[in-house]
Amino acid sequence: MNAEAPVAIRELSYAEALREAMDIALGSDERVVLMGEDIGVYGGAFQVTGDLVHKYGEDRVMDTPISELGGAGVAVGAALTGLRPIFEFQFSDFAALAMEQIANQAAKLRFMLGGEVSVPLVMRFPAGSGTGAAAQHSQSIEAWLGHVPGLKVIQPATPEDAKGLLLAALEDPDPVMIFEHKILYKMKGPVPEGHYTTPIGKAAKRRDGQDVSIVATSLMVHKALEAADQLAADGIEAEVIDLRSVRPMDRDTVLASVRKTGRLICVYEGVKTLGVGAEVSAMVAESDAFDFLDAPIVRLGGAEAPIPYNPDLEKAVVPQVPDILAAARNITSGRI
Amino acid sequence: MPVAVIMPKVDMDMASGKVMDWYVKEGAWVEKGAPIFEIETDKAAMEVEAEASGFLHFRVSEGEDIPIGAPVGWLFDKGEAVAAPADVKAPEPPEEEEQSAEDAPTPEVTPSAPASESLRATPKSRRIAHENGIDLATVPGSGPRGRVQADDVAALLEVPAPAPAMPATFDAETGPLAVTRSEGGTGDPVLLLHGFASDSMSWRPLEATLAHKPLIRVDLPGHGKSPKRRVPDFAALVSMIRETFDSLALDRAHLVGHSLGGALALALADTRPAKVASLTLIAPAGLGPELNADILMGIAKSTRVESLSPWLKQLVHDERLITDSYARLAMAGRQDPTLRAAQHAYAEAVFPDGVQAFDLRAALGRVTATTKIVWGRQDQVIPWRHALHAQGSMALHLFDRVGHMPQLEAPEAVGKLIAECIDTR
Description:
The structure holds two protein chains of two kinds.
Chain A: E1 9-13, H1 14-28, E2 32-36, H2 52-56, E3 61-63, H3 68-80, E4 84-88, H4 99-106, H5 109-112, E5 122-127, H6 142-146, E6 152-154, H7 159-171, E7 176-181, E8 188-192, E9 204-207, E10 212-216, H8 219-233, E11 238-242, E12 245-247, H9 251-261, E13 264-271, H10 276-285, E14 298-302, H11 311-316, H12 321-332
Parallel strand pairs in A: 2-3, 2-4, 4-5, 5-7, 6-7, 10-11, 10-13, 13-14
Antiparallel strand pairs in A: 1-8, 6-12, 9-11
Helix pairs in contact in A: 1-7, 3-4, 8-12
Chain B: E1 3-6, E2 16-22, E3 29-30, E4 35-40, E5 45-49, E6 54-57, E7 65-67, E8 71-76, H1 123-131, H2 150-157, E9 179-181, E10 190-193, H3 204-207, E11 215-218, H4 234-248, E12 253-258, H5 260-271, E13 276-282, H6 293-301, H7 305-314, H8 324-332, H9 337-350, H10 361-366, E14 370-376, E15 395-399, H11 406-409, H12 411-423
Parallel strand pairs in B: 10-11, 10-12, 12-13, 13-14, 14-15
Antiparallel strand pairs in B: 1-8, 2-4, 2-7, 3-6, 4-5, 6-8, 9-11
Helix pairs in contact in B: 1-2, 6-7, 6-9, 7-8
């Protein structure tokens, strides 16, 4: 936030904060266009674009045909040739259909063309489980895209960050992938008015503590905070780090926290193996913060299985507050 | 390749488990699906079945805390060479031969066994030890499987509080220690050894539960009604207690000791094994160096109820137990300034620089009598984690919301545990 005059802060939902960011961008920069399936009159699968089509018209808020590969290709081309497209997927899972454009085109063109071009593309992915949308509409695939050099991959966890990070993504010269947890869309929180940006690649400390560092992403930040409150009643003070950005990852903030607490728990909804927590753990193990570890690192990630439709099983395959509590109690009591 | 027998996860919160009972002998054949061991968790005990057939080798000790997923043994196929797989710990060295009661050599107190070859220590503890020139092999580890953690090293670095200046003016006395006996009861007697700065009155809350046995209470030298003998060190104290024990000429006795009395009971059990029917150690000293000497010194030098009471409250978890009348009664037994001086000199000798200068961990490993260790998790005088040095065959009873005085804070439960120990023999 660079504004010098005091800025009004209101309560907005996460979806409203995203819409406000797009509204500001559309209103202030004529290069900005929205693309995606049913984002026009219908307002988007999760009503994030809402009525923006009525304000800016169908030339700026474009419904694309039901082909993720085709739509993404148009968006990459638009970005290459001077526009600032924001491309919305209905579900992040459908990135699989557009992977050629994301991983082979958008991510690589700057490198392959000697830096002569860049792809200033923003893609928005409704992600995560908890809505009963089952295996093909509930995944957390940020690690898929985080594995591709050339992409930036971010996961805002609060309405304020959703707006600030989307506006920052629009200023970035390279492709930025935003994973928005579907459960967060209705979550309300304070959001400043007007234009501001939240830096990409910078984690946020959501809670101070000395006993254990919990590095979490997206919805898991809120579960970690809930667990931290309960742990405080037992005299365990957990530090909660909202990673916010998977690529690039904020090494300094994570390492500083681990140096302080000596204990690390990573909580993320994507599949545990080869996931975000694996990267965070390795980053710590490879650094000088290793010498500050006083217990083995714990990863709490998604189960090695597709997300089930059954609501009980759907809960069981991703980390929940009791899992975080148990891990924190074990790691702080010398039980592991 | 041998098949690992894994410590299974049988409930959600479980980070480690213990093999309570092996059903299959070392080297014996076990059929797939047959029960192989019993596991105990916080909540339950249950049987675990063999996941493969084979000859069982490299079993872990019963009672040892094993992390989930770690091997507790290995199954070898017929004809397969029995060689230690990479992550098998070297087998424990054979236990030392039992000493016979009659020709027990001195000294009785021996240092603990040397640290294992591959030291388990967290990176943080290694860094702190390195920065302070501490040899990690000398640090007792409180983590799983004896892993040294940062707190273990930090505890060694804490500067002990300077000893309070206090003239140690008392005339050393001689004579036998005071022994009192209960009336009634049958069978082997129960010998009760109280802790530092206490006296045999402290067993009162327990005595109702133990009334079916003859009770023998010993006042430590410089405590209660015993003479204020000069105690140069712990070994001398052990000799005095052993002398008293021998003079009682008992066939066998059940030993119950609290804190310093626990260390003495253990030392006695180590040197008179044939005469010990069972051993109950309540928050015993001698199982690690750490000690909150401030509390003990505070009690030893208090001259009035106002100064004694805050220290007494440190002994318990529920401070409400230390009522005014309790504190007054405790002070009444400590009015004699020479007794206080004697106890102060005593603390300097037995706990120099606020450290438990005697190590009975090896002795604990040699005990063959039925043994229970009882501890309060909120003990502020001696950390309950010292109890983790117990052998697999010993029962460990940890009470939550109880401090250094389980016999005062949970007298019925503790009495019942002692009774169990006594009545099974």
